[in-house]
Amino acid sequence: MKWSWRIGSIFGIQIYVHFTFFLLLSWIAVVYYSERGSLEDALLGIFFTLALFFVIVLHELGHATAARFFKISTKDITLLPIGGVARLEKIPEDPIQELIVAIAGPAVNIILALFLYLIMVIAGIPLDAKQPDMIHGNILAQFFWTNIILAGFNLIPAFPMDGGRILRGLLGIKMDFLHATRIAASVGQTIALAFGFIGLFTNPFLILIALFVWFGASQEANLAQVKFTLSKTTISHLMLREFHVLSPTDTLAKAIEITLATQQHDFPVVENNKLVGMLYRADLLMGLMQKGQDALVDEVMTREFVVVESSDKAEEVFSKLQSIPYATIPVTEKGELVGLLTKENIAEFLMFHTAMTERKSRSFFET
Ligand SMILES: [Zn+2]
Question: Cellular component GO terms, alphabetically (predicted)?
């Protein structure tokens, strides 16, 4: 996620903090300070918030553990003011799996709450729900309620909260992924509107949450649409078929010449009909800076790169393109180079597809 800083890692999962989280910390410090006028209270407020985020990390690790059970790894966890986000390598396709992964987070909070409740019952500590002083109240009671609130908040049926995914998982048992996502996103946006409206008259923090939920829902719906469209086609339908190749013995000057004369930035390097390398724009620039334009392609090309087959599903390659630093992937058919796949290609394909779908839905309304 943009605007995030890495603070460490647990079980090989990177933990990041989003800059808005620091806004929350300063907001809490200001609120505590203005309510009580003591620096000590402001610091305690921050301490409590940091402890709260430790609980959120545990919640996210709940998702990560459930995902791992279905052999899906977690790339990283980002802490935001409204909680955390565990970025899974992919969303489980099976609705039941998505349901279990989504429930696992709030389940951690419920288990923690039960555990705290047991300790409090044994120790005879009252569950003072109306404790007005979060700082000086009993720390166990505070964390008990924190976990209950976290579980409750995350179960709100709106993306990007777990409740949104749980709702999609439940809908997904009866309908396809795209329709389930659309309905779940609409429910989420309706809730976001309600939050925003209530926030106008009560707590402005609710408006911030409403914005998060609104954009989370539309992002989720768009992504589902893209994946659905791409899942219906293979690479061979959207790859570039007209392109230039270079030979390892060509000079960088030739690459410059072709780049200027065409729209192509990245070149497959072919020797005896075999794909041996890729000359990406970054390689070309680096080569020019270090060795000049008379250097050979062979000296500067990338030798380890991702290759896809023309019969591969477009959807899988789309995810692959998101996770590699290059914008072009060479496409082969039984080992022979037949095309290039670029991000622009996919964007164009989606643009035309959307235009055609709109025409269909418009003629549906006209008739
Ligand atoms: Zn969660």
Answer: plasma membrane
Residue 104 lies in a domain: yes
Nearest of 6, 181, 157 to residue 78 by alpha carbon = 6
How many whole angstroms from 17 Cα to the centroid of ligand 1? 16
Pairing assessment for the beta strands 267-271 and 274-279 based on DSSP bridges: antiparallel
> Does residue 256 share a domain with residue 190?
no
Q: Is 60 a catalytic residue?
A: yes
Number of domains in the chain: 2
Residues 287 and 267 in one domain: yes
112 domain residue, yes or no: yes
Expressed in angstroms and rounded, the spacing between residue 162 Cα and the centre of ligand 1 is 5
Distance (Å, rounded) from C-alpha 93 to C-alpha 101?
A: 11
Burial of 202 (0-12, 13-18, 19+ CB in 10 A): exposed
Range(s) of the domain holding residue 111 = 4-230
User: Taking a C-beta distance cutoff of 8 angstroms, is the pair 33, 43 a contact?
Assistant: no
pLDDT digits (tens, 9 = 90+) for 24-69: 778 777 877 777 777 777 777 777 777 777 888 899 999 999 998 9
pTM tops 0.70: no
Residues 162 and 247 in one domain: no
Question: Residue 106 Cα, ligand 1 centroid: separation in angstroms?
Answer: 6
Residue 359 covered by a domain: no
